# Entry
Amino acid sequence: MEEKILELIELRKFGELKTMLSEMNAADIAQIFEEIDEKDLLVVFRILPKELAAEVFVEMDSDMQQLLIEAFSDKELREVMDELFMDDTVDIIDEMPATVAKRILKQTDANTRRMINQLLAYPDDSAGSIMTTEYIDLKKDMTVDAAFDRIRKIGFDTETIYACYVTDRSRHLLGIVSIKDLLLNPKDEVLSNIMDENVISVNTLEDKEQVAMDFEKYDLLAMPVVDLENRLVGIVTVDDAIDVMKEEVTEDIEKMAAILPSEHSYFKTGIFETFKARIPWLLLLMISATFTGAIISKFEDKLTVFAGLIAFIPMLMDTGGNSGSQASVTVIRSISLGDIEFSDILKVLWKEIRVAFCCSAVLAIVNLGKLLLVDYWLLGTFKGDGKPLLEIAVVCSTLFCTVIVAKIVGCSLPIIAKKIGFDPAVMASPLITTVVDAISLMIYFSFAAMILGT
Amino acid sequence: MEEKILELIELRKFGELKTMLSEMNAADIAQIFEEIDEKDLLVVFRILPKELAAEVFVEMDSDMQQLLIEAFSDKELREVMDELFMDDTVDIIDEMPATVAKRILKQTDANTRRMINQLLAYPDDSAGSIMTTEYIDLKKDMTVDAAFDRIRKIGFDTETIYACYVTDRSRHLLGIVSIKDLLLNPKDEVLSNIMDENVISVNTLEDKEQVAMDFEKYDLLAMPVVDLENRLVGIVTVDDAIDVMKEEVTEDIEKMAAILPSEHSYFKTGIFETFKARIPWLLLLMISATFTGAIISKFEDKLTVFAGLIAFIPMLMDTGGNSGSQASVTVIRSISLGDIEFSDILKVLWKEIRVAFCCSAVLAIVNLGKLLLVDYWLLGTFKGDGKPLLEIAVVCSTLFCTVIVAKIVGCSLPIIAKKIGFDPAVMASPLITTVVDAISLMIYFSFAAMILGT
# Structure
């Protein structure tokens, strides 16, 4: 498909191209347009039927949108903008440099301009920033028939017609009727009798992540957004909620990997931007790790006596780190799914301690088996430094304790972070690893001191 | 709200409770029911109006559903089941023990039973397993008015009425009309003139994760599912697609933390089940880490001479691991978002190498500054073992190279894994860390040999 289209562009067969594109989906067209030469882009874009052109425009990324806008005549710009829903218009303007944004605003009428500026003013993470202002509003004394008339009249310009909102004269939200309700009720029924007054709505300043979670919980197609006086100002549609879910997950995953969240996709993020997102945590964790080094320094003299112990440091540190991050990541994900709250901390601890006992027992036994049976007796590769059996005891008991401590630290830090207002996702593998490393070495050297009598 | 309801149950004020519950949302009620005593559950459930009761039932978790089913009379069971959509019925039966499942099936008529068994047979990760069989089917020679008549007739029993599917006599999918199309066209228009023949559909065996991604890409509310002969057999609705997205993300995050994916939420997963999900990777990674230990063993003699070098091992290993997992997690997420494919591997490598140079330069310089200015000159805490300046050179140059190698390994392993059919998510922090640990120690000791002449 993609190759065929690129070939038609190459051969300048625009008639055939037009027929082909007209039958395709906007998202697919936008994806193919990414591959087109800049100089051909405007020509090919102009081939598209007006409505489809606007849909494709919305699906493009902002670099390409900017290219097109700069190439558009004022008339073309107005035509595309007229077809867009308010939330898409605002998203596009938000991404453009000031001069381009100004030019777009100049092509809109005063009313729309005021609305756009109002929407641009909402904080980036608020429900207001993702809502659209085109929705179907009905009055409670309308009949079903009258409601259908109104939908037929204004439905062309609204993003969804499936949820209709009943408001009073001052736009206070009174209830909700779905098209299904309207279709399945007699034509002369009055809306006040069939509307659902128990409407789930959010405030314009509500966190958009919370809004996305509500979509999932209540299986919504659209969510009404109200201002502080409970006046309906817009709606969020499910496709925008899905986009928010996707963004939030990416952000969480990035935080868990000690990366500051970035806004753009991989290849759209510049080298310096990627560097800036990664270096702060790397620096912080590097400096923290020097404390772990300091613990080793203190035991340096003894390590020169029992040099065999050094070889187990990576295994102990890694296993501790992995055990801890298993617990922390599980807990972080459960917190963001709403399964774990601060009040559950003891329940979580109790569960993790029991899991930790099972894990550490198996790990210690396997390790004991390997060292004792394979390395010491069978192969004779483990000689130790005079006290091989005691050294094995030090390693295995350290392993056992480290895994348990790691799980406890791993499961509790995210919950505590959440409680004191930090992002729990930050308490994932890298930070847990650094903490657990230090603890595991302290355990190791304490056991060495006790058992080997150093 | 929740406390008030629990109080009303305590006080046996069922009249008041009924009024209160009737005005609430099913998802909220199900959440509160989690807190109710088992013995009260059936009593309170019986208070709910029939339709709401079924909605609440669907939102409960399977343990509670089983409790209720076992307490239901046959008549009650039939009443609840009659209200459910086919996909929910199948999900519930899928979670029940065989005897309970049998009892549910006995309460359904032969036709439904056949349908349920057919749906149960689809693989767990297929589109067929999440679709529902209740949808609106229209014929292409119907008028808009006739279509509305059919929707009014069968719309009560379908999960969504917003997308209607036009099929021929043998149920081949011909096109799609939305309610919006129907409302905005004249009543005597024939469907064949207004339907969209360019329908996006999936096969019953399509991976459900792919289906969820299509919802996001094409902003769909429902996706038609067809069999191998292109006959329409069901639809997937957007709420189910959202659930799939959520599950898949949790699975990816678990894999990245070296946990085998589990099916249930945190507290619903037993100790042994959690243990089983975590121990395989812990064992595997522990054993891999012993190879890192073997590298240290080989250099043991030299380490006893330059014992100061031991203290830097955790810092070098951790920084390498963190650098690597930043790259791998970014790439893994981009792969699952469809931003990176195998053909991009050189582009990714080139980008990561440049980012790595920036990061490693900063890290090495900061480290050099700390060791040279603070530890060596200012505080005098770093004495080294005869050759302090050379030792500092070894540490900083190792750090520089380790970070670059870590980024290269981190970004390429997931892409290669994907290419050869493994899950890229598995190539996240823990595995990368183990690989990078070994490499960083080899670099460390090689530099030590070269610079210190050991």
